Every structure is written in structure tokens, then in C-alpha cells.
Amino acid sequence: MEAEKIYREILRKRNLRSTRHRTAILAELEKSRFPVSAEDLFINLKEKNISISMSTVYRVLDTLVENGLVIQSNLPGANKAVYEVNKKEHHHHLICIKCRNMFSVEGCPLSEYEKSLENRFGFSVKGHTLKIFGYCNECNKV
Ligand SMILES: [Zn+2]
Ligand SMILES: [Zn+2]
């Protein structure tokens, strides 16, 4: 139950009451290799015999997003949002245009580029997002 203790601590720091549902959802998102939709989250929790309703999943996700613990992204062309734990480290996304899965990539190759833009345009860079589209390893096999 080590992980659960960590989530309780994270919630406490944000002055959020730690509820069974909040820690379960954080744990589930943390475990996932890629961002998941609320529906998939709901199914995964049900499979673990955690009793939760779809509306509670949405409510908990909203709270976690509002408090910066979880990031919500919308996949282009798909009308559903996906969620992932907000790791403080900056990262990028690979988006498969076939299965619509989104994979997080740690690390960033753009800091030199940002510096050169600052020099060239006298522009003070505060951040960027980068989404890379293509076919994932699984979809490449088909
Ligand atoms: Zn794919
Ligand atoms: Zn970056």
C-alpha cells in the first residue's frame, strides 16, 4: 500500500481530502502506459471490484485536473478526452492516427531550439507543446 500513501500525501498537500476513489483513480492513471479515457478508467476500476459510478469518475477527474494533479488532453478527431498523471517533468506525446492511443515520451530535444528562437526574435519562450502523429508499433504490424 506504499503507493496509496504517496497519493494520500499528494492530495493532502493540495488540501484535497483523500478519498478511496481519488487514490484509486490516481493509482490507475499512474500505472497506465498511455493516457486513458474516463470510460476506460471506469472499466479498469470495475474490473478491480472498486465500486464507483461513471459520474463519480468524471467528478474526481475534474477535481484532479482543476488542482493540476492530472492533465486532460483531447485527441484530435476523437470526441473524447484522455487523462494522465501530471508528471512534473516536461514531456511530449506520440499519437497513433489509427488506434488513437497516445503515448508519453519523456525528455525534450527542444531547449537548444528555444534558445535560438529567443536570440533570433527576442522572444521570451515560456513553454511549448509537441504532438507527433503516426502509426504505433502495434498498428505498424497490421
Ligand atoms: Zn496504433
Ligand atoms: Zn519539449
Report on the architecture of this protein.
It contains 6 helices and 6 strands. The chain is α+β, with helices and mostly antiparallel strands and 142 residues long. The chain has helices at 2-13, 20-31, 38-47, 54-66, 111-121, 137-141; strands spanning 36-37, 70-74, 81-85, 91-96, 102-106, 131-134. Helix content is 44%, strand content 19%. The chain has a 3-stranded antiparallel β-sheet with strand order 1-3-2. A 3-stranded mixed β-sheet has the order 5-4-6, with no helix packed on it. It binds zinc ion (2 copies). Residues 90, 92, 108, 110, 128, 130 line the site of one zinc ion.
Can you give me a brief rundown of this structure?
The protein is α+β, with helices and mostly antiparallel strands. 44% of the residues lie in helices and 19% in strands.
How many helical stretches? 6
Biggest sheet architecture: 3 strands, antiparallel
SSE run? HHEHHEEEEHEH
Q: Percent helix among the residues?
A: 40-55%
* Low-confidence segments: none
Q: How many domains make up the coordinates?
A: 2
Shape: globular
- What is the spatial order of strands in the main beta sheet? 1-3-2
What distance lies between the first and last C-alpha atoms, to the nearest angstrom?
Answer: 40 Å
* CATH architecture grouping of the largest domain: Orthogonal Bundle
Number of strands: 6
Structural class estimated from helices and strands: alpha+beta
Ions, cofactors and other ligands present here are: zinc ion
CATH topology of the largest domain: the name is Arc Repressor Mutant, subunit A
Mean pLDDT: 88
CATH class of the largest domain: Mainly Alpha
Oligomer: single chain
